[in-house]
């Protein structure tokens, strides 16, 4: 069972079980490794329970049967300070954590999978026509897997790609046309191929980030692909999620977290890898052409409200492909960024001016403007429900302008660039250079141009 449970340790309280969603357990890293039988870490109960709204959100997203124990203040006060294995001191009441995952069972399932070569492994990829999905298909084909790419008859931004174009685009894969929002359609399309599935990779995502669409795709359709995959024999599921779900304020983040939690708690020998990348290049290249044409670099606040370690499509696809084979990536939540240091918008702008040989010129927009627009849209949406999504898009824009795409330290509540792993070789500088020369072809944003 891929689920971490916490038991009251140093207090003389009853021994209630507290299930942790993957997002929470990832914050407790390195103590929370579900493949070890006993965690040696100790956590301050009050911090764990009350630290932030996002943690509470994660608890409430747990599935049926999960319970959250809020330690009574008296018990918290009665708790004795303890020392963690790493030597850090915690005040108040400390808990000892124990994992209940069955190491033997996990390893057996994994060992069985490892015996197969890439050529014998059938991998179903949903969201195969997306910005990342296309690269994952390419990478898996390159590595010699049997790839079954699931697509819609009309795919891509605005549904512009025909079935024929999709088959050409996903060369090397068997393209299977189905509707991921309909589990029966998905099951029968996969079943009609007459091949068992070994691994499912989901790169599905709402193309708009709208409220309903997020739940329909990031939760329901992704869950359908899990069900259809498992029905066809899949025993490993790789999920493309996002690092920003650590602080879930937006609807698509909540939908993703719900699915992450269900995936991690699925059981039945199903293993998983939850990949949470930082920013994609496409989200950062939008100003290259206007700056090249003499425009200012536009940023919010002082340009240092947030930072990210951007990762290219190809590098991320390679990391996702590694999740099919690497034992250290099973049953893990994996935040991942690209190479190099974390960059603020100001630093990205400076890099761009340097490359273009131009004098830096910035336009700093007060973040209050966004708050004002969101406030107006939120108010109007109460009367005109069709404004709900525009209000949500405003919130998405503000989130990306103010929150870093880096690992969030649950103890300090701060983003931590050093704790955000790097992977791959493609740098933002090389990407900017390419966009200067070739433009943003292939880097278009989604249907609402918010991500
Ligand atoms: N942008 C960033 O900086 C960033 C950073 C970290 C993480 N992420 C996350 O990465 C994920 C993937 O992003 P992406 O840019 O690759 O996504 P994308 O280009 O928008 O692709 C989405 C995929 O989902 C499919 N899909 C959407 N709606 C569907 C529907 N109704 N029925 C069937 N399929 C549907 C699309 O199929 P069609 O082609 O048929 O539409 C496409 O294959 C997202 O979850 C995002 O949150 C993004």
From TrEMBL:
The enzyme's E.C. designation: 1.3.1.75
PANTHER family: DIVINYL CHLOROPHYLLIDE A 8-VINYL-REDUCTASE, CHLOROPLASTIC (PTHR47378)
Compartments where located: Plastid, Chloroplast
Pfam families per UniProt: NAD_binding_10
Occurrences of domain NAD(P)-binding (ranges): 127-326
Reactions the enzyme catalyzes: protochlorophyllide a + NADP(+) = 3,8-divinyl protochlorophyllide a + NADPH + H(+)
Superkingdom of source: Eukaryota
Keyword set includes Zinc-finger: no
Pathway: Porphyrin-containing compound metabolism; chlorophyll biosynthesis
Name by which UniProt lists this protein: Divinyl chlorophyllide a 8-vinyl-reductase, chloroplastic
Organism: Sphagnum troendelagicum
EC class name: oxidoreductase
This protein's UniProt keywords: Chlorophyll biosynthesis, Chloroplast, NADP, Oxidoreductase, Plastid, Transit peptide
